[in-house]
Amino acid sequence: MGYILTIAVLGGGIGGLATSYYLCKNPQVTKVIVLESSSRFGGWLWSTRRSDGAVFEHGPRGIRPAGAVGRFLL
What we know:
Elements: E1 6-10, H1 14-24, E2 31-35, E3 46-49, E4 55-58
Parallel strand pairs: 1-2
Antiparallel strand pairs: 3-4
């Protein structure tokens, strides 16, 4: 008899969503649960849609500040 393999992924950012996607493709995994602490998925990635229909894609920080300020930023 087979077994049920449920996996919890902590965080709904791009890393957590990609991990969940690939876990779902594994035939041994029967259930994937994504746990996110905020009200939306995507982490630092998000989109803004203006009233004229233009969509702006925003992403994670590409440039870190130098020195002590940027040392612990991911």
